[in-house]
Amino acid sequence: MPRAKKPKAKKAKKTETKKVKITKKAIKKAVKKVKEPEIKEKFVYFFGGGKAQGGEKLRDLLGGKGAGLAEMTNIGIPVPPGFTISTQMCNLFYDRDMNLPQILMQEVRENLKKVEKLMGAKFGDLKNPLLLSVRSGAKFSMPGMMDTILNLGLNEETTEGLIQKTGNERFAYDSYRRFIQMFGSVVLGIDKNEFEKIIEKKKEHHRIKMDTSLMVSDLKDIISKFKKKIKSKTGEEFPQDPFLQLLMSIEAVFKSWNNPRAIHYRKLNQIPSDLGTAVNLQAMVFGNMGDDCLTGVGFTRNPSNGENLLFGEYLVNAQGEDVVAGIRTPKPLEKLKKERSEIYKKLLSLTKKLEKHYQDIQDFEFTVQQGKLFMLQTRRGKRTAHAAVKAAVDMVKEKLISKEEAIRRIEPAQLDQLLHPVIDPDAKLEVIARGLAASPGAASGKIVFSAEEAVKLAESGEDVIMVRKETNPDDISGMAVARGILTSRGGMTSHAAVVARGMGIPCVVGCEEIKVNEERKVFTVKGYILREKESISVNGTTGEVILGTAPTIKPALTGEFGEFMEWTDQIRKLGVRTNADVPKDAEQAIKFGAEGIGLCRTEHMFFAKDRLPLVREMILAKTREEREQALNKLLPFQKSDFKGLFEVMKGFPVTIRTLDPPLHEFLPKKEELLVEITELRMKNEEPEKLKEKEELLARVEELSEFNPMLGHRGCRLGIVYPEITEMQVKAIFEAACELAKKKKVVVPEVMIPLVGTLEEFVNQKEIVVRVAEETIKKYKVKLKYLVGTMIEIPRASLTADEIATEAEFFSFGTNDMTQMVYGYSRDDAGKFIRYYIEHGILSQDPFVSIDQKGVGQIVAMGVKKGKDSRKDLKVGICGEHGGDPESIIFCHKIGLDYVSCSPYRVPIARLAAAKAVVGTEDYTTA
Amino acid sequence: MPRAKKPKAKKAKKTETKKVKITKKAIKKAVKKVKEPEIKEKFVYFFGGGKAQGGEKLRDLLGGKGAGLAEMTNIGIPVPPGFTISTQMCNLFYDRDMNLPQILMQEVRENLKKVEKLMGAKFGDLKNPLLLSVRSGAKFSMPGMMDTILNLGLNEETTEGLIQKTGNERFAYDSYRRFIQMFGSVVLGIDKNEFEKIIEKKKEHHRIKMDTSLMVSDLKDIISKFKKKIKSKTGEEFPQDPFLQLLMSIEAVFKSWNNPRAIHYRKLNQIPSDLGTAVNLQAMVFGNMGDDCLTGVGFTRNPSNGENLLFGEYLVNAQGEDVVAGIRTPKPLEKLKKERSEIYKKLLSLTKKLEKHYQDIQDFEFTVQQGKLFMLQTRRGKRTAHAAVKAAVDMVKEKLISKEEAIRRIEPAQLDQLLHPVIDPDAKLEVIARGLAASPGAASGKIVFSAEEAVKLAESGEDVIMVRKETNPDDISGMAVARGILTSRGGMTSHAAVVARGMGIPCVVGCEEIKVNEERKVFTVKGYILREKESISVNGTTGEVILGTAPTIKPALTGEFGEFMEWTDQIRKLGVRTNADVPKDAEQAIKFGAEGIGLCRTEHMFFAKDRLPLVREMILAKTREEREQALNKLLPFQKSDFKGLFEVMKGFPVTIRTLDPPLHEFLPKKEELLVEITELRMKNEEPEKLKEKEELLARVEELSEFNPMLGHRGCRLGIVYPEITEMQVKAIFEAACELAKKKKVVVPEVMIPLVGTLEEFVNQKEIVVRVAEETIKKYKVKLKYLVGTMIEIPRASLTADEIATEAEFFSFGTNDMTQMVYGYSRDDAGKFIRYYIEHGILSQDPFVSIDQKGVGQIVAMGVKKGKDSRKDLKVGICGEHGGDPESIIFCHKIGLDYVSCSPYRVPIARLAAAKAVVGTEDYTTA
């Protein structure tokens, strides 16, 4: 093994004395916290016999594992005794050119004596040898560092002693064989395969498959070959002296701190390189010494459903790894209750104690050695969302934790599992591709490649999955009836992703592996050829595309979930609204707890079959009069749409945005027209039709833009064509007034999109106020309404103080804001953003979670300038970030009044808003 | 005439006393300045006989005209005596419900007596009547207010007196006729046409055309009809009392302050409505009383070329208006020198005095009445750029003004006239359309619709004007050989506009009136049909498109121009660099005084005929190896390009930007391919070619983006394809090192475009530094270089403190910054930006002059954050704004180190940078 590089060796040497001084101070300070008597210079911390030096609060010195063992010991959990060499020694080790000081080995010997005493065995003893495990343990769990060494202390002689002690020759030799193998690879740095090859050869020789079928003689032969291999590889004998084994293992742990893999991991995770690792030495206990021995694993509560019952498995006369290895079938813990009730009782009481202490579900390991129960490990138990919510609610009722703590420990993203069907985790799946997990949930159905086909097939009662290169507003009708959506292009905020999340339809986007040919109605991936009407499944939670129909589970929304969500409402300060364009979505959102509509996109109403021709008529109009005629025909549709929304929202505010997208989105595509025209020209049969198409193309070309995202859209449309805004405002207020006449409460908020200057806003506000007042007067009703604006253009944020003199509310459109602050088109940037994330240039997709440093800075500036200028300014957010937990917490911090998100993210937003109040740190760093 | 609305009448009444007090104070203060004895309450200010109460410093009280008359009088210019009623009286008039106080008329009478004394005539006298002119005069020149009334004081009796006095009956009646006409329309509010009709009728009757042909009897008849008209329209007789005429005229002037037109003008120009107007009453003098009378106009220096010689014309026995009316041919002033040398001498001395006093070229009017010379008016003389520069330089040499003042008074935009050919102002032109004046200068030539045709025709020696819907990088070869460019789409920073300005080629863009059909090689406008090879002219200074070949003048760059530019260099703090991609442009810029290249766009080199195939090969490469092979072929081209630039720049710094545009710009257009493929498919004859085209289309589609401006471009290319950056950096440093080997000074500055995050910059900097160091080592030379970045993404400005930790210079790309801060695509926004400006939503095109409030705010933030983080950070600007005078002054204010602009704007930038130091205010408000 090459010598690890010493960090800053020269400098460190010079200041060694000084450094040690600082170190002592740090130790004293840490030790004081746990109220132990003053310790002069201490590197080794004992645990065992119900008492430990240190605990969780000495995590810096003891590392995570050492602190945990000490903590368990201190609260009276029977843990095999042992001791921890502090992380401080690791730094000293590097400062001393990788030499351990004498004083350390003295301390180790003293502590070893205590272990020997407690275990009634002696390290290196020929008759009753104490065996040790050695484990690394830094402050943060860190892959890349040294693996465990078990059975340390065995040699030719002590193995004989172990046989005498246990009467089990095979156990003893197998333990010795394992020890040499681990020591050889981990401490001596010999390739693991070298040892495996020897075992394989032996098994081949006997034509056996399992290690367990090896006889004692085989094991002895293997041991001998292992030792020869070590001699040949290192030039030295395998060390027989247990203390030498011990010393070498400690050094190996410290050296592993500077493994390339460990260094790389620290860099990636920004873990300081001077934290160091601790070394944990602990007495071995065995569950396989006979029938009075057993070993098992478990959870303090059911990790699937949260039920408050001990849950786990065990095996009699077995080693820990056997339980999970699947060679023997382990028994459920209920069996233990019947078969060994005293052990079960003890286990139950210990695990309850652990749960109470750690105030959370524990995932534990235990071993019974010759009738004596030892807890080997405990850690936070991983659980499903269902279990997490149930357990948290139960624990509040058990007064184990507070409501705040319950909120702190549920991750908002987990709730997705409770809101969508999921693929049966036990099902065997043929995953054929992976894309971006754009809208959670799983769905299966028959492949279609067009909106028409989707509608046709869905009407005949089939489940369909819509597959496209990308979607556009023309596809809405097909998307609405699809069970799932799959696209080969686009990012997390592409049209498909946004619409699908809005509709709560599972969706995978940007699945670039698949090659979609929409004309030929086929897509290919890795040799699979999938045609129209063949079955696939998409998992919008993972991004997987699965061949055939995957079995799904629809998780029940239990009563605890509702209760939990009410708590979030009690605590949160942020309001939560929804983005909804149609009554169906609004209704769903209200069920999920939305308190209003934060964004109704009027243009989504324009794509319906019965309206699109009218919209096109309006766009193609050559005069203002023609345009007004077309708009008059659209008015009744818009009015009835708004009426529906107002009715569903029952007095909650409804923010309606005036027309936003560029007009050419409503026209046929230029490319399609070009092909049609070329065909017609070459056929030369239908001159009339050719002329008509050419005229249409001319208008499409006139309206087409190089960068439509930065083109003639948003309020720019309403300014150049004021009659469009007039029609929309008229529709809003006629709808509102008709309901107001029936004594219904209606709170319309008209929102002007894409405002960049005060003048733009004033222009549109004048129209809104004029038409609104006229309509209210006509209907003779009283109606309060607000006129505000989207803040989505950087300039609007920069001049928010000006704009707030006229605008009554702001709603930050952080999708567009992110596009413009980064200069990323969300329809195009998918490809390089993925590259950026993979190469560490971006830590996350800024369309998924708000970029607090840049976009967030300008949003915060806008909030401050706006509120400074108008005290009662209402400020919200209605971009996709409104449903992202991290972004919601940021919105809380910068003083927003509400967030608005798609209906299926409303519960997530409610939870995130509550977490913004109670904090998230305690739980995530634990 | 309807009564004008009284501004804030009620409030004003209540506080009247107080208001007058404040007024007195203000008057005292103002009067103190001109060192006159204390005046208690004063509304009328006298001028005449070499002394006036007040002068230019009492502009607030006397208005512009009154202050000027007082000033002239005080410096000893013989001005017909008179007096000014102060603006304060105007406010008092409105405060008193539009009644003049008695005290005013007393003061008027007193002052009138002084005038009578000086003129030796008496107001209303039957034998020797004094006549007056009445003129309005606010602080700021303001159209919409009352016109002049001449000959006030005439009535049936005094007209007879005038005949006696002058012996000229026709003169007297004509004067009376004019007075009634003016008084009737201006004071009594009768439509002017009513009077004109009467005169017309009379002329028809006599079948004569000119007013001058009317006889005395005709005039008498007309006067009689005028008076009847007045009686019938107002119900009252035309006032015969000269004092009533006077009173009514004064009131009419005050009332005209609140004319709708005047109110509108004040609103537009943000002139406070409480400034009020003054009234100027002045003795009439006549140049048409006989042969000892004359009248003339002139300039103190030649307004065309600046020559220091009296320049103007005069007529003997004539009225002022006759000189400009063109009925009699006036004589040049040189004639006066011979014919009336004593008058000429006096005139010369007076005008020199005026010029010396006002320190600028004066445009004056004078009249000699019976041998006595009166100056009637003097004002700043309008002049050509040529004259402006020559006169300014001369005046500095004459010690009339300082260098700073010379700089202050030349408008940078004027210099354009000195740098480009202009259309002969005397030529008769047939203007057929108007677009945006995108690149100054005029050019004529034969129409071409494609780059190929342009090259072909130009090679055969023809001048060509390139006409396109819009241009793109494919057109560069054609644009380079064109004399002028005309497009029907695009704004001031469209591709055509930017490239044309860069090349100094006259260009008109966004000329939407013309319908261009590039396929059929024809464009139409207002019934004109213009085909390939027909002649047109474009005037890039005015935006005009002219039929046929317009005659042009190439102004000479005189020695004074060079001298003047040197002064700007002595004064300015900002450096001035140029945007240049090829040695030819760089050379031109150096001639114009550039101190380095601020932006070299490497991609412009990629469009050359011999390189484009290689660029396409690189883009279409399927593997990194293939791509590197193509790049290796490009390397020698790039290297020789850079070498050329470095050599021309002779040790000035050269900022080279790595590849910026999205790759699909280098590929054929999707639309064209689609048509080709459809045709090939339908013909079904060339399956090989079809396949090839289909493959190309597939790649084009793969690379095509919805919003390329926000897509995969800039450093995003160099990050995903590091081999591109590597090749470019290698080319830069091999070129630099080869020159350094020959002891030439080379200062390369590598600039990374479109950086939005520190990580992006670090990624590219690593490549630059690595390849640079390798190359420098290989060549064994010493070479200093910088690595910096464009700041053009809003996020880069917001996080400039971070980026400056690594970047050694910033160059603000305010084109892209404006696009993103406003959300305007400069290729698309032209249409609605024009609408915005016409409708007052934008005050100017933010792509032409930097939007200081929004874009400027974020730029200033970036400068501050950057310099706070790195003290020696060099900061410049290289967007189109770098050549806009207002923007340059802003750049100076926010602490930039240099600006960079296209070669033809370098002199303009030098001047603007100097003006940023010396200020511009004094001159523009004068």
Description:
Two copies of one chain form a homodimer. By secondary structure, chain A is an alpha/beta fold. The first copy, chain A, is built from 37 helices and 34 strands. In chain A, the strands form seven sheets. Chain A has an eight-stranded mixed β-sheet with strand order 15-25-24-17-18-19-20-16. In chain A, helix 18 links the parallel strand 17 and strand 18. Chain A is elongated and about 105 Å long. The N terminus and C terminus of chain A are likely disordered. At the A-B interface, helix 25, helix 27, helix 29, helix 30 and helix 32 of A face helix 25, helix 27, helix 29, helix 30 and helix 32 of B.
Round the mean pLDDT of chain A to the nearest integer and report it.
Answer: 89
The quaternary structure here is homodimer
* Termini Cα gap of chain A: 34 Å
Estimate the strand proportion of chain A.
15-25%
Total beta-strand segments of chain A:
34
Q: Which residue ranges of chain A are poorly predicted, with pLDDT under 50 across at least 5 consecutive positions?
A: 1-24, 30-40, 922-926
Physical arrangement of strands within the biggest beta sheet of chain A: 15-25-24-17-18-19-20-16
Q: Share of helix among residues of chain A?
A: 40-55%
Radius of gyration of chain A: 34 Å
Largest contact between chains? A-B, 57 and 57 residues
**What is the approximate shape of chain A?**
elongated
Q: Quickly give the structural class of chain A.
A: alpha/beta
Largest sheet of chain A: 8 strands, mixed
Number of helices of chain A: 37
